[in-house]
Amino acid sequence: MASKLERIEVFPTELNLASKRSKAQLVITGWLENGEARDLTRLAKIVIADKKVADLNRSIVIPIGDGETDILIRVGEHSVKLPVRVSRQSATDPIRFTTETLATLTKQGCNAGSCHGSPHGKAGFSLSLFGFDAAHDELSLIRGGLNRRVNVLAPDESLMLKKPLLKVPHVGGKKLVQNDSAYHLLRQWIFEGARGVIKNEPKFVKIVVYPKQERVLRAPHLHQQLSVQAYFDNDTVRDVTDLATYQTSKRQVATVESNGLVLGRERGSAAIMVRYLESLESVYFTVVPESEGFAWLPPQENNGIDRLVNDRLKLLQIEPALTCSDSVFLRRVHLDLTGLLPPTVLVRAFLSNDSCNKRTKLINDLLNSREFARFQALQMADLLRITPEVLTDGRATFFAKWIEEAIHTNQPFDKITRQILTASGDSKEVAPANYYASLNKTENTVESTVQIFMGARIQCAKCHNHPFENWTQDDYYSIGAVFNRINRDKGMILMNDSGEMTHPRTGKVMDPWGGKADSADPRLKFAEWLTAADNPWFARVMVNRIWSRLMGRGIVEPVDDFRSSNPPSNVPLLNELANSFATNGFNCKQVYREICNSQVYQRTTQATEFNAEDNENFSHARVRLLTAEQLHDAIGYVTGSVQPAGEMFRVKAELESKERERTVKIDTNQSTWEESQTKRLSKLDFYLGGQWSLGFYKAKDQKEAHEKAFIEETAFHMDLAKQDWQLQPDWEQSRKVNFPENEIGARYIYQTIWSRVNAKVKFHFVADDGVRAWHNGRLFYDQIQILEDPKTQYAETELSSGLNYILFKVNNKGGAFHFTVSIVEFDGKALESASNSTLPGHITGILAKPVQKRSTDQQNALRNYHQSLDDELVELRHELALDVRLQYATQRPWPEQTDFLKAFGQPKRTSPCACERSSEPTLEQALQLLNGRQVYDKLTDSNKQYASLTDHTLVEALYLAAFSRYPSDLETGKAREYIEHSENRDDAIRDLVWALINTQEFMFQH
Amino acid sequence: MRKFVVTVALLTGLVQAQAAISFMHDVAPVLLQRCEGCHGSKKSKGDYRIHTFEFLSEAVTPGKPHESYLYTMLVDDDPDSRMPQKDDSLAPSDIELVRQWIAEGAKFDGSDPKMPLRSQLPPREHPQSPELYRVPVPVTALAFSPDGKSLAVGGHHEVTVWGAESGKLIRRLKNLPLRIQTLKWHAGGGRLIVGGGSPGEYGELALVDALSGERLRVYDTFEDIVLGMALNQEGDRLTASSADRRVRAYDLASGKRCWESSVHSDWVTSVAFSTDNRFVVTTSRDQTAKVLDAETGELFTTYNGHRRQFGEFTGRFKVFASVFEPISGSVMTAGEGKAIRVWNPVKAEEESGTASDMEKRFSKAGHTRYIEHGLGLGVFAMCASKNLVYTAGADGVAKAFNFEDGKVLHEFKGHLDWIYSIDCSPKTSRLATGSYSGEIRLWDTDTGEVVNSFIAAPGHVVKQAILNN
Lengths: 1006, 469
Hints:
The structure holds 2 protein chains of 2 kinds.
Chain A lengths: L4 E7 L3 E3 L6 E2 L1 E6 L4 E3 L5 E4 L5 E4 L2 E4 L3 E9 L2 E9 L10 H12 L25 H14 L11 H4 L18 H11 L12 E7 L4 E4 L4 E3 L1 E6 L4 E3 L5 E4 L5 E3 L4 E4 L3 E9 L2 E10 L15 H13 L9 H13 L5 H9 L5 H11 L1 H15 L10 H14 L4 H9 L3 E2 L7 H4 L4 H12 L19 H11 L2 E4 L2 E4 L27 H8 L7 H14 L19 H13 L4 H10 L26 E2 L2 H12 L8 H21 L1 H13 L3 E3 L3 E7 L3 H6 L18 E2 L3 H4 L1 E4 L5 E11 L3 E8 L4 E5 L2 E6 L8 E8 L2 E11 L4 E10 L2 E2 L10 H7 L8 H13 L2 H12 L16 H5 L19 H9 L1 H8 L1 H5 L4 H13 L5 H12 L4 H13 L2 H4 E2 L1
Parallel strand pairs in A: 2-10, 12-20
Antiparallel strand pairs in A: 1-4, 3-8, 4-5, 6-9, 7-8, 9-10, 11-14, 13-18, 14-15, 16-19, 17-18, 19-20, 21-23, 22-23, 24-37, 25-29, 26-27, 26-29, 28-35, 29-34, 30-33, 30-35, 31-32, 31-34, 35-36
Chain B lengths: L1 H10 L11 H13 L17 H4 L12 H4 L19 H12 L38 E3 L5 E5 L4 E5 L5 E5 L5 E8 L4 E8 L3 E8 L5 E8 L3 E6 L5 E6 L4 E5 L5 E5 L6 E6 L5 E6 L4 E5 L5 E5 L3 E2 L6 E2 L2 E6 L6 E5 L3 E5 L1 H7 L6 H8 L3 E4 L6 E7 L2 E6 L3 E6 L5 E6 L5 E7 L4 E6 L3 E6 L5 E6 L14
Antiparallel strand pairs in B: 1-2, 2-3, 3-4, 5-6, 6-7, 7-8, 9-10, 10-11, 11-12, 13-14, 14-15, 15-16, 17-18, 19-20, 20-21, 21-22, 23-24, 24-25, 25-26, 27-28, 28-29, 29-30
């Protein structure tokens, strides 16, 4: 670069070497006129004025004797003077166990998770992971293991040195070199007595890494020296550059030596993670190697997104791609927003449209469509793990519909999130409460919530401080305290008044994250904190998810792995998207709109010499395999086995009108049907009304249960509407009444019997405990406890002609049991079956009433029953209930788990991780496409869709459906030739469809 | 006799430099040190192992070094494929030894090509101990002489003998292994049996003249340090255990090895002969104690009372020490955990079983008695005398318990560091304890009072003896 050096800067700005063992890594930075920095540490001339005070080891200052001097640093005409103070050179300074010995073991990898830091150690020798438990390590190293690891009198005989030096066989390999500083430190520590933690040892507070801000490493200056300083609670600072450990996030882009020298490799960005004890800091680097022949040509920019992406591309010297064609754009945006291929009608219209804002208009149309809401709901449902196996009784549908509606009406995302995170109540009635209903434990709730809404994987912190991130065990359990009071009782989400979260290691009661709650519900404060505009994760995680859905890769990737050691590929872009999301009231559709309208989104997938290798800076679009559901629907659409998306509503409307017509027709016969049934019934000796139940009424003991009148028991007949009488149609066959276990109390069972004549009737029933029975308000059976075994009882009463009202009261003193009742004798004759009517009891019951005495509900019940007798109407209603959209995998909240969908990476929804959806190509996928059952079945009928067309229009229709473009002349020619030369035209069409869906152009999104 | 010849050969090694290369003396030690980590019994990179001669010789063509993979890999030009990988190359002189040995026909001069080479290495010659100790060494072994007047203490490459009452250094028996882990007087005080070694690489069991310090016999060498040793009641049978997981027994007079047992899966920390000489009990870091037939070394039973899931004192504990009760035939074992286990080998065998409810049966009907010792970090060593057992613990306290009722008789407090070793002298009613800090304390077993204390390190200032107050 031609930019001139403006000034130089040295770090640290002052030096105070107060121990024999102290030292200081200098980092010399040159600032160029264009604002970029360059590492000059190894180029600068460094001169120490008084060598009796201090000296240099390359760029490291080491103390020699007490006193003061200056270091003069010079680069060209620029120079800086750095004062040095050296003291306490004759005082002893023993090695400190935690901050030096353990830090060295960490640096050499001894206490890594795969070595002695694993939970049970290795080969009988256990250290704590990265030295977080100094007491454990002290025991293990010094006195433990029968004191075999250190030898103070003869340090070189110490096993802890001989093993890593490979002087004694060591399965872990060579981990120490005899001449490096790590070896000298460990040996010296042993020599000094192998002492553990000493009282009053200064406590480590934090590290400061220089440089802190992102640096650009531009060829030929592809290096940067780091300096790491540790701050202690006695206000001392030590240079720990050689004790800290370094790790790169991307080896191809930048590597780092053990002395903190970063080396730039290939173009791109990387984070260098610096660890010292429990502190972690990341420094970001952008590496720009030489790019011969590259010239920046300002590309077209549609909005702010383009500007921010292009800034980055310009810096990295990557060429932005051109804008894609209308066909490609249409197919891409349609798939991204709705999950579906664009219908051919739309393709034709769009391609022939000359308007210059047609792309913007299309984007708006799609964002307003139901398909958009459904497809986004599907993706949201993946994360929230909505499955009918867990959320039973229709709750999965209920929750999914709620989300779909929220997306369709574009509810602010912070509001949706708050509703989910603070939901309480019955999950059958409160849709968002199903989030908690699907998570069975506090731990799961913590991990899911953090991963979904904060984009972080906090699982590690459950057992120990996170090894690669600043998440600590404290954090984990303080978030746990937010959710620990949730009471999940059979789908009811309630908050307990108490339920403290204690830290498993310290036993401390944790304050909930987000602040101690005023009310009993700490979720409120947490949700408020999380969804605040300035929350560091919330907005960024969501915009990154949207970005990833549209671009095929997140700015942070993986999208749920936000951590300082996994930097965004474009920091300003992510910040800007998040800021505008937060300031625009968390308007999701607006984010989609902005991104889709950008030139960046509309770039071609065609790579050039100067952007082919770029994978993360969005210089060109990514070729992506359609997701499982998209592919399923696309094949369905092209083969004609599902209705085209636009057709869905037409088909539904048609079904609805047919259903209406049929209903009217059936209803005209209603009165005729009722009369005939009444007539039929009147010929019977007797018939039964429906069985109704009321209760359960709790009592303190059996006596109370039996004797206390919980309702007006002697009332002649019950007003079924007034109390909570429940019709029990299921009981009609078996007449079974279930009693729950451990419930003491009573339940009523009520039934009408119509009799033609006055006649004796005999009931037979089975009960564990006691029963009372009334006929028209008269008690005719009363037994507090049936003692006979088997516990079958008979009771008789005299029915009068017309309607009779029977009431049973069954008590329960504890255990679970069934009550069954049936009529076994009528007018002295034994009955073979319990009922003699073909109609359900409650219908019979209504029919027994005079027409004018039937309530509206009862009239409706008769009407519905009559309608249900018509097969055609039942069929129509069934189809309507199925809902045509359910044929589309992308339009359902939980697509069925077929082999085909699973092969293409459909997630099982057992984890909140975005990684559950696999995008890895597999052999299974090829087999599914080439001759899988699903594809075969769909192909079988595909000729029907196209057979009626001429060869020419047929080929055109196929291409428009499959690729959203017209075929070229060559393609049309070849296809027509194939059809013409085949013996069987239907087979030829099928072959053609099969061939098209097996092309890369079809399977991939371009 | 062979051992003696070997020793002479070693001493005269320099003189014979031009003579034929010995595999066991010259080649094996180098290869074991530099190669065994990756090519041994635990790891076998490239499917090649050198821990026995049989395996090692797979890559050797006798007489032709340049056709022997073992040699060519050592001198490969490519630093990535040269062995040892990711490590410095062998010293040129060592490479030359390997070359010459192969050129001379690659002859094996060990005892068994199928046995681990490490267990066949000749005894090492040990370096000199320092005249003055810069710092004390932890006292990992100590033993009263039969008359109770002197105390043998494990030092650095030596055993030091001290006047028990005076705390004065009497004698230094040098040229012994780096660490001494176990000591026993023998032949009325004329000899010492010494077990020790270098952790992770070498173990040695030797007979030493208690006056001259001459190493009269090396019974055996081990692959790791020797941790335990015991003599039978008659004093004609010796048994020793090692961190290499082996237990071996010898005829004391002839030095002949009688049997070897490898039934433990971790360090064997102690051994003890039963009072009737029928059994050898061993304890291990693998959380078990085993009972072996003293005649044959065969496993009689395994005692699992240190890893219980049911009942009292549950947990999984490493076992460090064992001692037989002189009268009843019961054994006491202890280690980590809160209690000493008192149990009988025969009853333990009867209660042993493979049924899944064994643990449950054990917790209900087990005959084991538990003596809660109240030593926080466990017990490292024990000794018994009359009806008392003495324990040494990591929290620096030794205790005397009555065998029958488990009651504490005395607590010996005063050490400021972990106690690793303990011995008692019934004759003089003295107890000696040795700690990590190198301090030895002498106690009166009748009163529980400390009699004397000193640092067992030559050259260290000996503390003023405290004699009867």
